[in-house]
Amino acid sequence: MEMTIMKLLQATSLTKKFQNKIAVNSINLTINKGDFVALLGPNGAGKSTTINMLTGVIQPTDGRIDFDGRTSNNCEYKNKIGVVFQNSVLDDNLSVKDNIMARARMYNKPTQIQPLINKFGLESIWKQKYGSLSGGQKRRVDIARALINSPELLFLDEPSTGLDIQTRTAIWNVLDELRHNMGLTVILTTHYLEETQNADYVYIIDQGKIIAEDTVDQLQKKYTKNILTLYYQNGEPKNITVSDKNQAIQILSKNSQVISDFAYRPGTMNDVFMNLTGKEIR
Ligand SMILES: Nc1ncnc2c1ncn2[C@@H]1O[C@H](COP(=O)(O)OP(=O)(O)OP(=O)(O)O)[C@@H](O)[C@H]1O
């Protein structure tokens, strides 16, 4: 079924200068409804500054933000977004329950809390002080809190930093469910390349500029090579660049009589980043 693409948020020539430093340099972003968009870049690239502008925490030096006809300092805009900041904004001395309930009281029509408790497994830590939670537990509470106003667009600023793979997977499962069931749009900043692998669209940012943008498939096509290595029964192994795995299979079947083994290494987002910037992301 062909889905109509609906533009949800557009940032044009977005720029932020701090004194003499240009943290974000005239970037353009288009976020379509229901998409999972990743903003990928190394430390200091300008990811948080971008998110802070898009969420109305700081004002851009230049450029425009348009979300369904509204701009970022409009209060209706703020009602439509949820934000999980890099550093939590919850009160360490309050229980999970009191933190969540205090947030719910800020909205006229908060979402039902119980489904969030269930989804994020908050039952067993509900009465515990937020400050005493583990990193992964805190993140689950942070995300639940950001969803209380039933946002259309959820911003996550490096939500997985320091979390173990189980917690990351659990969080991603919940977010995927929300995307599919409620059409939630998600913008994520990350320096974990593997987190971009499931994104619908990726912006790669370095030194305040978007240096590449596309779907994961296209980025890998444009900026990486798939390498097929043939190990011969007699002679040196040979590396061949192939366009895709089908071409690899063709070559393998043609050579099946003479090879003893093979290896296929498809291009990765790490190669994309390496090829664009000449450096590893971490
Ligand atoms: N308030 C500020 N005053 C001066 N410079 C700032 C300010 N905030 C950010 N910067 C600078 O702007 C640049 C971009 O920072 P930003 O926090 O947006 O990067 P980031 O991509 O989020 O990095 P990280 O992955 O480390 O969080 C950095 O060089 C940073 O030092």
UniProtKB/TrEMBL annotation:
SMART domains: AAA. GO terms for molecular function: ATP binding; ATP hydrolysis activity. Keywords: ATP-binding, Nucleotide-binding, Transport. Residues 9-232 form the ABC transporter domain. It comes from the Bacteria. The keyword Secreted does not apply. PANTHER family: ABC TRANSPORTER ATP-BINDING PROTEIN, ABC TRANSPORTER ATP-BINDING PROTEIN NATA. Belongs to the ABC transporter superfamily. This is ABC transporter domain-containing protein. It comes from Companilactobacillus nodensis DSM 19682 = JCM 14932 = NBRC 107160.
